[in-house]
Write a structure and sequence with these properties.
Strand content: 15-25%
Shape: elongated
Number of domains: 1
Low-confidence stretches: none
Order of helices and strands: HHHEEHH
Structural class: alpha+beta
Largest sheet: 2 strands, antiparallel
Helix content: 40-55%
Radius of gyration: 18 Å
Distance between the termini: 35 Å
Mean pLDDT: 90
Number of helices: 5
Amino acid sequence: MAARFRMKRQGVGEMLRMPGMRAEMLRRAKAIEGIAIAASPVDDRSPTPGFYKASWETDSTNRGGRNRDRAVAYVRNTAYYARFVEYGSERVPAHHVLLRAAQEGGRN
């Protein structure tokens, strides 16, 4: 006899709001943050060496998703020039720190 499964949207919604789901999202975000910190470039010639590396932060909330009722976690860099490090510019090559960290951290 095969097992039967009937998914209920309400049950999935409850699961996505559970404290355990938020904790798991935060755990994964912390793993991505750790990889991003390790991969962050440091320019010793800069007036503030290490500022980009020290500007990573992670937080989580239950206000994500289309209906603003799902567990989510965010990893961001608050340095004002973070987008130029990530995507590059005409004078700075792209490093894709967060992209590579998310690819690597998503495997954990």
